[in-house]
Amino acid sequence: MIPTDVSETADTTTDEAAYDRRRLRQWLAGRARADGVDRRDLLRMLAATGLTAGLPTAFAAPARAAAPAASAPGIVKPLPEEWFTVRGTNAEANFAAFADTGHHTPASRFFVRNHTATPRLDADTWSLRVWGDGLAGEGRTFTLDDLMALPATTRSCFVECAGNGRSFFTGQQGQSVSGTAWTLGAIGSARWRGVRLAHVLRLAGLRRAAVDVLPRGLDSDYVTADGTNLGRVRRPLPVAKALDDVLLAYEMNGEPLPPDHGAPVRLIVPSWIGIASIKWVGDIQVAAEPLFSPWNTDFYRLFGDAYPPEGSAPLSRQTLKSAFELPWNAELPARTGHRLTGRSWSGSGTVARVDVSTDGGRSWRRARLDGSAHRADWVRWSVPWRPTATGPTTLLARATDTTGRTQPDTTAYNTQGYLFDAVVRHPVTVT
Ligand SMILES: Nc1nc2c(c(=O)[nH]1)N[C@H]1C(S)=C(S)[C@@H](COP(=O)(O)O)O[C@H]1N2
Ligand SMILES: [Mo]
């Protein structure tokens, strides 16, 4: 198998060896060029695909899944148990604990998704090189001071992993998928300040012929569980998106970016899956031809029966999701007035309405949105609830966005468990 999305395998599972072999043959045949990966590595991967098969993932409820770990290898900030669940090299935020945060997620509470480890970079010596045949001339190198001297833009938006909600493919749909078994906490929203990537590309001499840009992280090479070196984390971004609303961000919630979130500078690609928002960016290739990396060929596409053999187009926008700010299996006293709170978000349009059920989906009530929703961001909502009958019940929240999409009851299976958008069934007990 190609270990997907993460280096640990403890909470991953796949029995997709045949599929992986087919993908790798296509890759070897040059159907998906992955620069920086040499042929020997690919052949070793191919050999490895016949040998690995995971164990079925046991779906673990978020509240109890947390190993009492307070640190993850490679994450710098403290990870208190009440705020985070460590998953390999990553830390999932505890969504229930967002109940006491405002609209924005403090950096101390923001999920971390690291392919390897947070590098400690020196802002004084850091620089960004912009280069490639999509530029007129030699390109240009920018220091942090150079970037900070340019006009600044602030955007409020979420960063969310494409695999957020992945565990529900197993927990709700009984399907095995590969990758980190996130519940719903692989998301946070912050106020990001920086310079528009468009501005920097133009200063670097962007030509009309440019089609893709390839930002690359300064974290160390990503080596998969079977020992294949995929090189630095990098994912091509079409020039049209790069020129639209993308930031080279150096501040998060009014403070310099913290190390785990990309210091000194990261990309922020609003509405798109988290992998687009490359952290610790060190260089950006600008190309007059389409670019490929493992992160837009074998990862971050949809594979499975519902998709073509070569997979879907590379994933771009996030999907539609909702979550309650309530622990899994929370106990709520009967005959007491409760206010259920949560958040919904969409990568397309804005969230138009949210409906909540407290009886397993039999009846629905409209939640009150907290202010108006904004694109590429989440909206908070609440609904009052005074339960009378005691015993277990299931809460559901279902969002609809301004494109007219409503969260479905199930999500079409894809092998790597991306873009889970079905309504999540949240168990609670009335006591
Ligand atoms: N250089 C680099 N950039 C990266 C990653 C990484 O491992 N290395 N992970 C990506 C993924 S998969 C996600 S979901 C987001 C997570 O951002 P955060 O850790 O600030 O929450 O960063 C993206 N940018
Ligand atoms: Mo991600």
Automatic annotation (TrEMBL):
**Pfam families membership:** Mo-co_dimer, Oxidored_molyb
* GO molecular function terms attached to this record: heme binding; molybdenum ion binding; molybdopterin cofactor binding; sulfite oxidase activity
Question: Can you tell which superkingdom this protein's organism belongs to?
Answer: Bacteria
Q: Which cofactor does it need?
A: Mo-molybdopterin
Moybdenum cofactor oxidoreductase dimerisation domain ranges (all copies): 338-425
Per the database record, which ranges form the Oxidoreductase molybdopterin-binding domain?
A: 115-295
Cite a single GO BP annotation. sulfur compound metabolic process
The record's InterPro entries line, in alphabetical order, gives: Ig_E-set (IPR014756), MoCF_OxRdtse_dimer (IPR005066), Mopterin_OxRdtase_euk (IPR008335), OxRdtase_Mopterin-bd_dom (IPR000572), OxRdtase_Mopterin-bd_sf (IPR036374), TAT_signal (IPR006311)
Keywords attached to this Swiss-Prot or TrEMBL record, sorted alphabetically, are: Metal-binding, Molybdenum, Oxidoreductase
* PANTHER family tied to this protein: SULFITE OXIDASE, MITOCHONDRIAL, SULFITE REDUCTASE
Name of this protein? Sulfite oxidase
Which source organism does the UniProt entry give?
Answer: Streptomyces tabacisoli
Taxonomic lineage of this organism? Bacteria, Bacillati, Actinomycetota, Actinomycetes, Kitasatosporales
